[in-house]
């Protein structure tokens, strides 16, 4: 290596030094500075600053040789006058440290370390909090390493316990030459004239007062790492704290590949494998490093890491001693070290043996079976409180029903038997509700919200949960989520218990029939718990599979199997499945809802027969699901069966019977059975008017008027239809509120009808339909079927108003969503395509319109609504009429007037199929 000779005068003395291009050791440099008196050290500090300024000036030089020689000389001098004398950190910075550069720069600027030697008016403190393994300590060590020359001394304290902290302070006291105790060390730091940096590491214990570790006075800079978010209040400068949970996707992939020593450059395929592995590990730095080591040691490859990860978990669970039976003890230790901090926290909770800790453990176990994020506080309180609300609502409805003068129905022997089974046998076989104790609401031990908050607060302070203040929800890091659920000490039977607890929370958080005061809350809950329902059902299936595998165990193990609770379908599962199906229906997943509803229906019919309250309710719900799937013939047949069961159980004039009859009438409209529908709706309205409490201002009456308006529209009684629809909308708005789904649907239907009574009503119709669309986008999402339906209404009205460009944009945006979510042959998709064809036809784009209509009319898409007499009803007539006009290429004025009635009258038929 070549060397350069340089001469410089320091404090009037001539120094000549030969320097290689590499820096001298820090130890030698530090000794050089230490040998100088204090006043000379001060001059050295000034010289170091001047050299740094000189380097900055020289970097602008245009002479490369001069720049190179000058920089080498400056570095050589700087190596002789290092300011930093003491440097002690808890761990060495990894050679492949990756990410968080933005935070490093921000922290350097916030703490103004460049001017650390200037007097400061307060002690500067900054907190880094987050999950264990998120890289908090490495970050602080990296910061200290990058900025050590701005501090005379860099020290650290083990803040995990008072005992460990005392030992750390004793080491600092020894450096200061004072008594080896905590107070002496803090006093020495407080009086130190030089700038210093102190890292208080792992201050996690919520019972420890971190302020006890702070030296007094205004001097120094302190960094604190902690899992406890309440400690973030100790920060003083800038944002005061950073929250570390996971790396960004790219940073995480880079760290994994660097830890695995993957050859550069990293190609697209390599990065895709790394991203997949990083996602599994929740982008947690410590886990990524261990995964990289496993790949580096050839325990697996990058592309098959997910399978290796799953195999490792299975080995950990099967080996209670946490030793591999195949000799990979180091491998197991490597993986277990990622989870060791979680395990220590868990065992610490168990050891305390008090109500708060027991509640925290039960919640932690239950949360591990929910989806890992967005566990809302309201979800938990609803789960605790809703059963009592349901009972109170049921008693109130029972009092109303008993006040209605209806003729009693004689019981058959079969009905009497089923009633006896329901009242005697069912309670004896009813399983106990499995819930965390903190969520139980019993007469002798009512639900205590403060107790729940206390347990959750403890988990947050321990870093096992993170609280999101914006929506008052909790989340677990994916690795913590997996660890709690898959701990080696957790048996399959225990997993089944806590998985059931999670399912019970979800089921109890929603109503089968929500009381009027909780409808909005119930609708919101259904939207939010879908990911939780999916996760619980997936884990339930996994547990069931393992139980089935246990059934194939050797005969000598059968006595042991009798001790393990076996999952089965009973009353509890029927209730959960029925409520989960409501979640699927609300989110537009009709086939998933049908799968659950069929199981509940079969179970209830077998246990209670078709004429029980619960059997009628689930069969009626299933029939409405058929309507949403445009399987109208199946819906109509089933609804007639349900209607007969309701008449036998309740009588012909009972509110439940009338509700089923009214819905049946709406289904008949979808099959073009207008006379049948008209008769049913008229009978419902007449019967409701005679029932006490069910007069013209009741929700059921407005619903029946809404349905009757649709029938009037089919008979071309437009003004009467609009009049009835307006009454229904205004009545629902008064009774249910402006944002209730029934009110929104009535408003959307009214907007669609306004085109029949004059073009002057179209601006109001557009305004109403756009208001409905905005509300549905906000509450249901952009891809929900009802949102798509209201978007279609907007596009239809814009077409009638000749706003062709805007209408086409709506069609082209919504159709791909409908085709993806509903299917190409779903009635809603076909309706939207037909309207798009009509838009093209209005623009004289006849060939495009014809192509759409021919594709629709030639497909076998009408079988599900085909009438017994072979007719296809409005849809077939509508499509055929459009196609005929398109083929003849008729002009707009004459043909539009002719087909306007068909378009508007048919629109409610096809659109109401989505209700």
Q: What can you see in these coordinates?
A:
With 915 residues, this protein is an alpha/beta fold. It contains 37 helices and 11 strands. The protein folds into 5 domains: 78 residues, no CATH class; 159 residues, 3-Layer(aba) Sandwich (Rossmann fold), CATH 3.40.50; 100 residues, no CATH class; 175 residues, no CATH class; 154 residues, Tetratricopeptide repeat domain (Serine Threonine Protein Phosphatase 5, Tetratricopeptide repeat). Strands 3-5-6-7-4-8 form a 6-stranded parallel beta sheet. The protein has a 3-stranded antiparallel beta sheet with strand order 9-11-10. A hairpin with a 2-residue loop joins strand 1 and strand 2. Helix 32 packs parallel to helix 34 and helix 35 runs antiparallel to helix 36. It is elongated and about 100 Å long. The termini are far apart. 40% of the residues are buried. The N terminus and C terminus are likely disordered.
Which oligomerization state do the chains in this entry correspond to?
A: single chain
How would a crystallographer describe the biggest sheet? 6 strands, parallel
Find the structural class using helix and strand composition: alpha/beta
Number of spatially distinct domains: 5
The number of strands is 11
Taking the alpha carbons of the first and last residues, their distance comes to 82 Å
Number of helices: 37
Overall radius of gyration:
37 Å
Beta strand %: 5-15%
Strand order of the largest sheet: 3-5-6-7-4-8
Low-pLDDT segments: 1-36, 320-332, 423-431, 560-566, 860-865, 869-883, 885-915
**Any idea what the shape is?**
elongated
**Mean pLDDT, rounded to whole units?**
80
Helix content: 55-70%
